[in-house]
Please model this.
Amino acid sequence: MRFDRSSGVLLHPTSLPGPFGSGDLGASSYHFVDWLITAGQKLWQMLPIGPAGMGDSPYMGLSAFAGEPLLIDLQELVTRGWLPKSEVDHVPQFNPNKVHYGDVRTFRMSKIRIAAENFFAKGSPAEKEDFQGFCKKQKAWLEDYALFMTLIQKYNGAEWSTWDADLVKRSPVALKKVRKEMESEVNFWEFTQWCFFRQWFALKKYANDRGVKIVGDIPIFVAYQSADVWANSHLFFLDENLKPLYVAGVPPDYFSATGQRWGNPLYNWKAMHKENYEWFIERIRTTLLLVDIVRIDHFRGFAGYWEIPATEKTAEKGRWVEGPKEKLFDAIAKKLGTPKIIAEDLGLLTPDVLELRDRYNFPGMRILQFAFAGDMKNSFLPHNYISNTVVYTGTHDNDTTIGWFKSATEREREFVKKYVATDGKEIHWDLIRLASQSVADMAVFPLQDILGLGTEARMNMPGQALGNWGWRFTWDQVQPCHASHLYEVSALTNRTGTEKLNLPNYPSDKSQP
Model:
């Protein structure tokens, strides 16, 4: 697989501006697509778009198939006539620079509930037919998700293994009974997904029609507190009480001296194999309907993964266990052809990881912030790249480039200055330019780096359970020079797909709303 030479921006939709406490699929998303076009960018990469779970992390989602209800555009619900305009005329004074998830979730979900009540009470026959068609088409995962979310409400957020035993073990009689007794709540959660998918596909079409591709993200593992594990417990290593026997993570590494104990339950790959990997294939298929290209997080886990006993508090005591390797990806190819996948091949790599990646010609990732800690053979240095690569200045797990440069060792800073021939005063643009000039087919830059922001704009601190994922920007931070400079860099390195480079007159200023 090879991708066209291009570049793009890493930005999760929750980071977008907007009046309701977090970004969503509304006007700012469309405006951001316009800005990408103005800046000569062809890719919009984002984090997983499923409903965030523990720690507000998109990598600990409540479902591997559902969309995040917080991303639903409330204004569209007003336009539809389901949400009275008065409900959004006076809103709390949310922080424009940070998502406070508790307050935002309370506000947004209360408005969506009002919209749902009005839809079910007075929605048009055509709208209800569309809703019912969606529910029927997505039945394989939607029924379990809607019931799971209903039961979370019923049990005040408690882990599913603590629910009544007949619901924990999914007695058909018990499931049927609760579905009937709480029908309106089940319908509400199905409504949220219908709204999300409608709005998502409208935005994706808008982007695709204008030459912008969406790059999505699939975490290799799923959260224990999820509809997926509750509905498919036999596919995971759980004990007789359906609690995890082992959990996922990585041993001590660059990010943490005690490793990272993620806490996700581990797959029972033998059980998956017996079912021809149907659940995982469906997960890939569904995601690739929503996005154009998908990055699979922690790709090395398919070759071998770090197994941590659930009783351990850190990731230090664990062992490497062989993953499904080509058996899984051969099954995916048989059902889906050649899916457009980026392999997140970071971390401790062994030859079998590289062999698996290269067997399917998946592009790997290179992070420039990792390039200057070693010598000239460092694989993250651009002169060591191959074309079938995606290069980033940094990702959501890194500090911003300016923050990284300030905290780097003196040796690293001197190495960067010599390698790029810079004084380091605009290190963010130095690395954006370096990435763009490389042979990597795709180059992606966090918006924080384009805007020249420091550590205060960091998205995630690996190993830190709380306080992540909240960064937001405002449109007044985005100046005309940001789009014009990025366009110039991309055009000069043949990433815009156009031979025209008339910089004094292009791009026009679309940076302001």
Remarks:
- The CA atoms of residues 229 and 450 lie 39 Å apart.
- The first helix runs from residue 27 to 38.
- The chain is about 40% helix and 10% strand.
- The two ends are 38 Å apart (CA to CA).
